[in-house]
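explain this chain.
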Amino acid sequence: ELSSELEEVRSELEERERALKECRRQAHAQEQQVLEREYQLAEKVAKLQGAGEVLKRKLEGQAEEYTLQIVELERVCAAAMTARSQAEALLEEKERLLTEATSGASGERARLHAAVE
């Protein structure tokens, strides 16, 4: 009877050992899957960071280009404003001279008309 109980205990122990080995095997397989997934995620993160850096450099380059264009536009605008101011001054001078010439001609006409009569 004792040997039969001993056999049962041994059998149960062997069954538990097999179950433990199976659990360890499954745990190892899951650990490998987790490590593989972590590696894949790390690769994706690295690619995204690299793409982010490329995009950042591209945007910085565009910002610099736009800044240079804005500076050039400001320079052109300032030159245009100066030219406009000069044109307005010339126009005012022309109008003044024309007014003087017109009034001078009217005076001369009146003097000639008076001399003729």
About this structure: The radius of gyration is 49 Å.
